[in-house]
Amino acid sequence: MTTRPFYTDDLPAGLRTAQVLGLTASAFLAGKTFSASFSAVPALMRAESPSLLAKQWKTLYDSDKLVAPLISVFSSGIFAFLAYRDETWTKPAIMYTTSSSLLLSLLPFTFLLGEPINKKLEEKARTLTSADVREKSVGEDSVHGLVDKWATVNLARAVISAVGAVTAIWAAVERTDIVPATVRIGTGANRMGN
């Protein structure tokens, strides 16, 4: 006779759907943000022309400037709802609250640290012409320096969103209860338990 636990959780389909949507959206946000810093920016930095780099960065930025905040608010709202619905001070409720707070903190984080860099880069994309082969400014105020700084801030955003996603995944897994199950293999005339 062996006893093996199995996992069960009787969440309604609506809550399961909310979990899946929140987890998928937050993981997507983490991956998308990480990809911009880790994959796209190094390719953009190969541009020798500051004008070209500024315009390419602007294209990358414009594609994400509405998507990322919407996903952040959406995921945060779902996790806040799941935390509210759970019993107070349970481990899943605390973890969902943490995840919701982390994802929502991306908005002020981006506004405070990223927006000044975004404004400078948008100005450079608007004012530099394709005739500007060499940039007048050097160092951190150059287009290359600003894009590098933007990638660093964006990478921090990726870490925050990844921690939020992992915390929510942990909360979802934490909800399952282990229920002992027994399996018996009977032999002989009494194998059916009669």
Automatic annotation (TrEMBL):
Sorted UniProt keywords: Membrane, Transmembrane, Transmembrane helix
Record's subcellular location: Membrane
Pfam families: Anthrone_oxy (PF08592)
Topology of the protein relative to the lipid bilayer: Multi-pass membrane protein
Organism domain of life: Eukaryota
Chain ranges passing through the membrane: 66-84, 96-114
One cellular component (GO) term of this entry: membrane
InterPro entries linked to this entry: Anthrone_oxy (IPR013901)
Main location as per UniProt: membrane
Similarity annotation: Belongs to the anthrone oxygenase family.
Name used for this protein in its record: DUF1772-domain-containing protein
Species classification: Eukaryota, Fungi, Dikarya, Ascomycota, Pezizomycotina
